[in-house]
Amino acid sequence: MVTAINVLVASGFSIAAIIRPQYLVPAESVRTEASLLLAMYAAAPRIPLALLALWAIYKKAAPALMILGTLAGFMQMLDAGIGLFERDLGKCAAPLLIAVLQFFRGIPASQILVET
Question: Whole-prediction pTM value?
Fold first, then answer.
């Protein structure tokens, strides 16, 4: 479930950057051919990843889903780094939270918690 949310949110933001960039960048920003090209480059790996992850969920292919989910988590970590670089708390915290959830979703609590 976390992987599905992860890839759908990431793909949604990438598609929104292509179609309606004013939802993601300051209103005074001017849309240029270069910004459109960068948005398409951002969407290019995320859309196939989303489709493959949703296919793996549908087929209940756990090994494939684990690999795709890990990849999606790393992509969210990179997005958090971009938000940190921009000094934008929302663009850093949200992807970081999704990445943390992605990485810890499949680990049993007994492996996370240390007995005292």
Answer: 0.76
Report which of 12, 37, 8 is spatially closest to residue 24, judged by C-alpha positions. Answer: 12
Domain that holds residue 64: 2-112
| Three-state DSSP state, 25 | coil
Instruction: Give me 57's structure tokens.
Output: 């969920």
How many domains is the chain partitioned into structurally?
1
Please give the structure tokens belonging to residue 23: 């939802």
The pair phi, psi for residue 66, each rounded to 5°, is -65, -45
Q: Within 13 Å of residue 88, how many CA atoms lie on the same side as its CB?
A: 13
Spatial separation of the C-alpha atoms in residues 109 and 111, rounded to whole Å:
5
What is the arithmetic mean of pLDDT over 30-47?
86
DSSP category for residue 115: P
pLDDT category at 17 given cuts 50, 70, 90 is: confident
CB contact set of 86 (below 8 Å; sequence gap of 6+): 92
